[in-house]
């Protein structure tokens, strides 16, 4: 009988082996589906970026469309309706030839015409023209297809302009960028981290399932070796038995991966969800993953045969393994040093892959150190504890630390992931806020001096036509230079407008003569005003007063110079056009300002803060999903490992029960076996998670971490999950008591 047929026969007649094989199949399927999904994330972001690359002239310039003869000018900006983002592209032909159009764009809009995405067209139809429709010219001539949208429901406008009306920031291009986007770097990093912190617990789950009948199978294989079977024959038997479950699991994972992709497509990111086809991997990569997953499981099963191969008599007699050496403790600092060096030296995308390898080594080092720590805990209990449950637990931890740690391995990885996430998230949240000097309700845009004058006139005319009282105000950006050559940026704005537009407390300064306003004292004698630091300056009027003001805590010190104290000959280098709004007229004012700007981006601090909160919400959502998945996998692996521990020692427990040992004493010993190593290991895993989170912050240049008391939550929850999973030992022991001891 060949090895494959023997494996099928064992699966058919042995219920415990069949149960182990089914759980192994499920574990491999989950691991395979997770790997396929996480590896597909960078491809999904690439697909998104490729579809939307035509919306931004940056990608056209990067692809070489700025080096040929220009046929169009293009400017990209971000507009808003409420808090919803609108991606706007203004274009104008500079040559009679229309360039190649991106997929999903049916035609090139003439001046005054626009093409809108279906979702934006629906909003234009539902809202008054003064609130939205007037921003996009005189006529909507078409609808953008799905191939032109980053995500379903994206709000996009392609607006035609004449070349003379284009913003001064518009870029001359030889054509649109077509399928030339860049994947989201943050989501790519999160995908790499997810592969490590979710797939490893999945493999731990697979290992726990495979160990359900480890002792029984080891004795069976040892008996075959003693009966004359060669190492090759034993290996082929195990390979065949494992391959049936692993290969079936990989194929099942491939079959259910579209379901994972479909569920992932409903998770919002960067303002929208995903198209179903975004999570499709190239066929060679799919084949590689589907083949690699069962090979990893197969390799682990074959490596586990070392004792059966070398000492079959010891395996059959269940002799105690050799004690573990202290050098295992070096695994964590060595892996941590490797990770830290890679993080600090990473520059290219290839280096980031090495960082993920280093992260994997750091996560894997727990499997090296964990058993040694478990053995030390067992030795302490054997020496100092005198109650039966504690002595039984200590002896188990001391004699089989690898098997005892196996129940904690998944929990340790979940705690590691949670601590890392709770190091990153508060730091990201602490960076939120800030923004320019303008109050939250003020809309503003940047322009050159001449263009700013045109925008102010056009915007004020539209505001008057819409019946609004607000008016656009130009705010010049200038530099104050003292006699020693030191410069200070300042805003050219009268005191009343500064009080109305800026986040400053003028402290009653507007009642006095015009002057210079700042938080700290400025000596105005000999002070010059310049358009920029390198241009010629003009002196301030004599006896110009300085007046104190106060600013918000989250903004830099601002200096305001009243135009009345500046000679008329000075022209600011750049100008910000600002308009105050109310909740009721915000969209009407935005329409007037956007229409006057001809594509220049209109922004406000309120929208910037809202944008930050959307990004933080995306991160929180992905983090919660990942941690829930890691916790579920960890709990399942701990429960299966605990049940497997009971099944491995059926003879021992059966004999103890037959000798009169209460089941509750054995159950208490098993719970101590699971809980004690988990408590120590989770504390260590939490510390390593904080270390890795700090390293990732260095990688993405977010500075020092912000630690909160919530950093302890994964450790507490991890210990709770381990204790809860250990509760399965009581039903397993009762089953042992119910079965005849002669079965073993």
TrEMBL record:
This is FtsX-like permease family protein. The chain crosses the membrane at residues 21-44, 189-213, 234-260, 280-305, 326-346, 352-382, 403-425, 622-643, 674-699, 711-733. It comes from Amycolatopsis marina. Keywords: Cell membrane, Membrane, Transmembrane, Transmembrane helix. It is a multi-pass membrane protein. It comes from the Bacteria. InterPro entries: ABC3_permease_C. Pfam families: FtsX (PF02687). Residues 195-312, 626-740 form the ABC3 transporter permease C-terminal domain. One of its GO terms (cellular component) is plasma membrane. The keyword Transmembrane applies. It is found in: Cell membrane.
């Amino acid at each position: 009988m060949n090895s494959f047929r023997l494996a099928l026969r064992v699966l058919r007649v042995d219920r415990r082996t069949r149960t182990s094989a089914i759980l192994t199949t499920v574990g491999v399927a989950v691991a395979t589906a997770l790997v396929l999904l996480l590896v597909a994330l960078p491809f999904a972001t690439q697909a998104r970026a490729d579809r939307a690359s035509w919306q931004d002239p940056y990608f056209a310039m990067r692809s070489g469309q700025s080096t040929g003869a220009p046929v169009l000018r293009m400017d990209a900006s971000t507009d808003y309706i409420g808090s919803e983002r609108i991606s706007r592209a203004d274009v104008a032909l500079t040559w009679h030839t229309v360039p190649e159009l991106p997929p999903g764009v049916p035609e090139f809009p003439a001046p005054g015409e626009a093409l809108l995405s279906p979702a934006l067209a629906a909003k234009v139809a539902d809202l008054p023209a003064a609130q939205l429709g007037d921003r996009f010219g005189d006529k909507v001539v078409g609808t953008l297809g799905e191939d032109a949208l980053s995500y379903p429901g994206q709000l996009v406008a392609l607006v035609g302009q004449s070349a003379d009306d284009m913003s001064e920031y518009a870029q001359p291009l030889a054509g649109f960028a077509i399928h030339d986007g860049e994947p989201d770097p943050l989501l790519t990093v999160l995908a790499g981290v997810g592969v490590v912190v979710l797939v490893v617990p999945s493999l731990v789950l697979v290992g726990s399932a495979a160990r359900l009948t480890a002792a029984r199978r080891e004795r069976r294989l040892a008996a075959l070796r003693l009966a004359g079977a060669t190492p090759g024959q034993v290996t082929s038997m195990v390979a065949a038995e494992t391959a049936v479950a692993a290969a079936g699991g990989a194929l099942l994972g491939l079959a259910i991966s579209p379901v994972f992709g479909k569920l992932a497509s409903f998770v919002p990111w960067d303002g929208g969800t995903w198209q179903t086809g975004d999570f499709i991997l190239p066929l060679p990569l799919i084949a590689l993953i589907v083949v690699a997953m069962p090979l990893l499981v197969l390799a682990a099963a074959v490596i586990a045969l070392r004792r059966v191969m070398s000492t079959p008599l010891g395996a059959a007699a269940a002799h105690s393994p050799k004690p573990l050496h202290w050098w295992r403790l070096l695994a964590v600092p060595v892996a941590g040093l490797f990770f830290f060096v890679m993080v600090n030296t990473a520059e290219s995308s290839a280096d980031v892959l090495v960082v993920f390898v280093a992260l994997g080594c750091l996560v894997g080092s727990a499997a090296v150190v964990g058993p040694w720590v478990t053995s030390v805990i067992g030795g302490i209990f054997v020496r100092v504890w005198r109650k039966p449950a504690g002595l039984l637990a200590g002896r188990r931890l001391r004699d089989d630390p690898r098997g005892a740690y196996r129940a904690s391995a998944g929990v340790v990885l979940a705690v590691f992931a949670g601590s890392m996430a709770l190091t990153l998230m508060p730091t990201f949240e602490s960076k939120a806020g800030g923004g320019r000097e303008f109050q939250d309700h003020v809309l503003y845009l940047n322009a050159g001096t001449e263009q700013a004058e045109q925008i102010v006139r056009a915007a004020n005319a539209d505001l008057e036509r819409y019946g609004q009282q607000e008016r656009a105000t130009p705010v010049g950006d200038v530099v104050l230079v003292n006699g020693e050559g030191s410069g200070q940026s300042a805003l050219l704005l009268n005191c009343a407008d500064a009080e109305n537009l800026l986040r400053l407390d003028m402290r009653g300064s507007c009642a006095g003569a015009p002057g210079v306003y700042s938080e700290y004292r400025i000596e105005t004698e000999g002070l010059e005003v310049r358009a920029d630091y390198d241009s010629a300056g003009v002196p301030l009027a004599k006896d110009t007063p300085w007046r104190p003001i106060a600013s918000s805590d989250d903004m830099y010190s601002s200096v305001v110079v009243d135009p009345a104290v500046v000679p008329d000959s000075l022209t600011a280098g750049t100008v910000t056009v600002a308009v105050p709004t109310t909740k009721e007229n915000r969209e009407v004012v935005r329409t007037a300002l956007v229409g006057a700007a001809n594509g220049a981006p209109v922004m406000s601090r309120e929208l910037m803060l809202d944008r930050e909160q959307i990004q933080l919400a995306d991160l929180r959502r992905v983090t919660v999903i990942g941690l829930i998945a890691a916790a579920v996998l960890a709990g399942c692996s701990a429960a299966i490992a605990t049940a497997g521990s009971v099944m491995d020692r059926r003879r021992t427990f059966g004999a103890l029960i037959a000798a009169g040992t209460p089941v509750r004493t054995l159950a208490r010993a098993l719970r101590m076996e699971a809980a004690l190593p988990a408590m120590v290991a989770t504390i260590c895993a939490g510390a390593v998670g904080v270390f890795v989170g700090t390293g990732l912050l260095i990688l993405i240049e977010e500075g020092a971490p912000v630690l909160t008391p919530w950093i302890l939550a994964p450790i507490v929850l991890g210990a709770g999950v381990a204790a809860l999973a250990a509760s399965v030992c009581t039903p397993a022991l009762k089953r042992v008591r119910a079965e005849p001891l002669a079965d073993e």
